[in-house]
């Protein structure tokens, strides 16, 4: 036999001194053993509370003693158990979130239509549109016959739904309804403001209709915002449950569906692992578009670039240090920057050209009103889990801050997209090279992933289109590469002190235009290794603006976005997953430059 009394009610009325009122109500409700939620706002009160009938009557009397709430008229129903877990009294900006300024139900609402009058209209077959202002998951449990659902997932979407209604409806009678009437108090005046001329509110909502008219002209049950989930037209609790994840009410049959796992999923929100990954990746892509529109480095800003003095430059003057460590920048340019107070010590004070530096000291190069060159932000996430992110990097796009790029970098963009995490690159890929890059989600996973690259345990495969036709189908280059490779003006090949390097090549196709497509496997990871080795062998990569034919060096490091692409791509990568501890492999599709469409390839390898 039902022993718990449930009340729900609201009242739009100006309320003041909300904090002391909140403390008073929470103390009294707890003393009376009541549970539920009371929302207080300067615009009024909204509540759902349950408990013994005598104590509920005490609460009603207490509320009616508050100025403005004298006519509070709660709707009452009974249940066999307490539908709430605790008692909450909260202060809110709105007692029902709508987010539209200028709508004040405390001063004016649309005409209210009593429940019995609506039933009479429906009995007579009057031409009227019944507009359900509730959320989609509430409508699914039941609604009036032939009602028009607003098609929203939350009440803040209602204004947008109204904008999509047919223009002719502005002249037709509309009766809007919701659970208890509170949403219609704001929806009605809003629709009138938008030009709808015959708006009526179902007074007391569906619950009042059930109380006075039963279930005639209604299909199903009414969703309620407590553990009862739904009540039938006799206001008795149904056997429905609610999905904790998507809030959808579930019938007894739906609760028996194997996709219903309490607290995790139901038939309406269940996703396979593949579907879940696809949804998360699409959300990441949307976040990337937001983070790069406009590009983060497009607005001028003051950039501070740190410098630490290496041991080899201990005792140098600042000007000599800068001129030697950045030899590609003219000495006169460094003098100008120093004169403009753009070289600062660790305390932020400018230093002069003759300032003597010492090993380990930190300095800052200040770049005022920096605006970075455009980059290609078409970043595509291929896979992610709690440990790693695997993506396809476009070009031009630097991974790390360097040179003219600080914010227009892959690392900066991902830090914004994945905040508060700061994903760390597990390996290097230069700004002009496209293809697969692996990032670790945390410092811990980076410590497990990065050493694999350093130890040569990662299998990497690239494709490159080169100028010329290598005569052998397979060949190797082991030329040592200078530590300064890639710095303009440096020696790329250093036979005496260069780093040991090995790259294996296999010809995939030889094209009729005199170019060839190669599969490339770098067994070491030196700076610009593939580009340098092919350049040394006489097969420079198509589109490379640094390593040019006939052993010459160009003057462009990061290519402009409008330039022809560098025909080098990281095609696939295989490594040991830092969490799963098993080998995993990721690959991406061949780019358009890797395909010959103008003519049949001259030859193909068997």
Task: Summarize the structure in words.
The protein is of the alpha+beta class and 606 residues long. It folds into 5 domains: 4-91, Alpha-Beta Plaits, CATH 3.30.70.100; 112-238, 3-Layer(aba) Sandwich (Oxidized Rhodanese, domain 1), CATH 3.40.250; 242-270, no CATH class; 304-370, Roll (Structural Genomics Hypothetical 15.5 Kd Protein In mrcA-pckA Intergenic Region, Chain A), CATH 3.10.290; 380-604, Pseudouridine synthase (2-Layer Sandwich). 23% of the residues lie in helices and 25% in strands. The strands form 8 sheets. Strands 20, 21, 22, 23, 24, 25, 26, 27, 30, 31 and 32 form an 11-stranded mixed β-sheet that branches. Strands 4-1-3-2-5 form a 5-stranded mixed β-sheet. It has a 5-stranded parallel β-sheet with strand order 6-11-10-7-9. The protein is elongated and about 95 Å long.
The best one-word shape is: elongated
Quickly give the CATH architecture of the largest domain. Answer: 2-Layer Sandwich
Number of strands: 32
Distance between the termini: 83 Å
Helix content: 10-25%
Going by CATH, what is the homologous superfamily of the largest domain? Pseudouridine synthase
Briefly note the structural class of the backbone: alpha+beta
Strand count, sense and barrel status of the largest sheet are: 11 strands, mixed
Tally of individual domains: 5
Strand content: 25-35%
